[in-house]
Amino acid sequence: MVFSQEKNQTPHIRMGIEGEIWQSAVTALCLLAVDPRLGGVALRAPPGEARTRWLALLAQSGLVVRKMPAGIGDAALLGGLDLAATLAAGRPMRSIGLLESAAGGVIVAAMAERMDAGTAGRMAAALDSGGLGLVALDEGVAPDEQAPAALLDRLAFHVDFAEVSHRDTDGSGLECGEIAAARARLGGITAGDDMLEALCGTAAALGIDSVRAPLLALRAARAAAARGGRAEVSLEDAALAARLVLAPRATILPSPPPPQPPDGEPPPEPPAPNDASPEPRPADGPQAQEDAPAPESHKLPDQACEIILAAAQAAIPAGLLARLRQQDFRGKAKSQGRQGAVQKGGQRGRPVGVRAAAPGPGLRLSVIETLRAAAPWQRVRAATSVMAPPGRLHLRREDFRVTRLQARARTTTIFLVDASGSAALARLAEAKGAVELLLADCYQRRDQVAVVAFRGCGAQVLLPPTRSLVRAKRSLAGLPGGGGTPLAAAIDAGFMLAEAARRGGCTPTLVLLTDGRANVTRAGTGGRAVAQAEAAAAARKVRAAGMAALVLDTSSRPGPEARGLAACLGALYIPLPFVNATSIRAATLQR
Predict the structure, then answer these.
(1) Residues 6 or more apart from 507 whose CB is under 8 A from it?
(2) Candidates 3.30.750.210, 3.40.50.410, 1.20.120.790, 3.40.50.300; correct CATH number of 411-590?
(3) In whole angstroms, what is the distance from residue 86 CA to residue 95 CA?
(4) Which phi and psi (to 5°) does residue 450 adopt?
(5) Residue 532 in contact with residue 544, Cβ under 8 Å?
(6) What are the residue ranges of CATH 3.40.50.300 in the chain?
(7) Which residues, at least 6 apart from 487, have a Cβ–Cβ distance to it below 8 Å?
(8) Hey, what long-range contacts does 518-526 have (CB within 8 A, 24 or more apart)?
């Protein structure tokens, strides 16, 4: 059951979950049009008729609407110095950014779930100033794909159109005259402290830890009162605001009220204090009047607080709490270093040419090429231009050229050395020689090398990614051999090192020196079949991540185990019955 408030009418009931969502979205749009300081709407909706219809209603609201494309730059968002106009006019000329052009209106941000942290921070600062509103269009499919939390906390309304179709949308429009009249009445709407206290209590009961949520709910209640022509926020306005603002933010269900005693039975007496001495009587006078509790007539009745909480609880979307728990679990698993995977390029490296583009952050202006592009047009532009004085160079935006930079990505070669079995000492000796040979090349290419040895019950990182030859020799010296082959644990350890190297901007490559005969599981127990299955699963995980790999079969007689492991990794397979450091180095450089 969802309440929808119309002008000069009491709340009425609209049946149908999809229809309720649509009516709530239209009501939220009306309240945003009355008070743009509500922040805006986070609209989670795939492209479709429902979203198109809602955006059409937004265009009819009387607000200035500007569209913000995905991946917008700082120059287009904030404005700044217009270099072309400055050179043409001979004085500083600034360009107007999107935030300035949309002042007092609403910005519609496409693909908000992919908005980077920098743009989200600038939008959050603009929302805090109260000069505009934001409609964040979220097209994410997975539960953990959503708009940045800094924006969601500042947007009053969260609407999900996943289950809404065009059949659920009605043909009603927005009355711009009513919205303008409500906006004029908004400044005179009052709300008591008891109403804010009730909204704060409702937010606490729903597990909402943000202070902005009850404040936005109070602002929405004032907008609802202005829309209904009331001078003071009523209980119905507060219940509507709790449904629209607080319910989508709920993280827990409210606890049930305590059981009431049967009729005729007196309430239980409070426990006696530990101190047996009688309490002193309050003295008469001004101090006693200050300490006296406020009259009950100035407090919102408990029944009214329960009505507001019940209205918010009834509007909690089905399955919201389950999705929140799933999203929280995924967020904890992926929060470590997720932002580090985004690498900004083009700012460092050697020049490899130019391209037509305006200079900006990370783009270096090529003065010579810019002048060369503008030179053939100077006589024509001087005859037709009326802005620049005679004798001045005429440059336009299409003349600008920026330098293209190319920087070779560093590589990190991770050796996974099988230290088990009777031939472990020979393999380790050759692996040490290969690492030393590769480190000699790393001094020139500034690449890194890491070594993981696995034997017995697990894998051990002997050498973290480094370019130090002395450290490599010290880490590899004195490693014992023998024991089982925990191949899955070794691949997991190499995968973790490769992920860390990738987040640091390097290109990882896994090199496995093994015969592929796994016989120790991740738990450290024996079992060849289980160990082989775990190793194959770990290898497929590396392949799914798109990491380069190389399998060097070090067995005296190459068998199908190492070849099957290479197939799971999507790696190059090289049998090396007579392994030596030079052949390992050559195969690695070839890869």
Answers:
(1) 409, 410, 411, 412, 501, 548
(2) 3.40.50.410
(3) 10
(4) -135, 150
(5) no
(6) 2-249
(7) 418, 454, 514, 516, 518, 520, 531, 534, 535, 538, 565
(8) 518/485, 518/486, 518/487, 518/488, 518/561, 519/484, 519/485, 520/456, 520/457, 520/484, 520/485, 520/486, 520/487, 520/489, 521/486, 521/488, 522/486, 522/488, 522/489, 522/492, 524/457, 524/458, 524/486, 526/484
CATH class, range 2-249: alpha beta
Distance CA 209, CA 192 (A): 22
pTM over 0.90: no
Look up residue 377 and give its two tokens: 């047009």
Write the single-letter amino acid at 202: T
- Residues in the chain, overall count: 591
Identify the sign of the CA torsion 482, 483, 484, 490. negative
Residue 539 CB-density burial (10 A; 0-12 exposed, 13-18 middle, 19+ buried): buried
Q: Cα angle at 550 between 549 and 555, to 5 degrees?
A: 140
Provide the residue-wise pLDDT of the chain in tens; the chain has 591 residues.
Answer: 333 344 433 333 334 566 788 888 889 999 999 998 999 999 988 888 888 889 999 998 888 999 998 888 888 888 887 777 777 777 788 888 899 999 889 999 998 988 888 899 999 999 998 878 999 998 876 666 788 999 999 999 998 887 777 777 776 667 777 888 999 999 899 988 888 888 998 988 888 888 999 999 999 999 999 999 999 999 999 999 999 999 888 888 776 655 555 555 555 555 554 444 444 444 444 444 444 444 444 445 566 677 777 777 777 765 555 555 554 434 443 433 333 333 444 566 677 778 888 777 667 888 888 888 888 888 888 887 766 566 677 888 888 888 887 666 678 888 888 877 645 555 666 666 666 666 666 666 667 888 888 888 888 888 888 877 677 667 766 666 677 889 999 999 999 999 998 888 788 989 888 888 888 898 888 888 999 999 999 999 999 888 889 888 877 777 788 889 999 998 888 876 555 556 666 666 555
Structure token pair of residue 123 = 């939008």
The rounded distance, in Å, linking the Cα atoms of 426 and 414 is 19
Q: How far apart are CA 531 and CA 525, in angstroms?
A: 9
Which structure tokens are listed for 508? 């990882």
In the chain, CATH 3.40.50.410 covers: 411-590
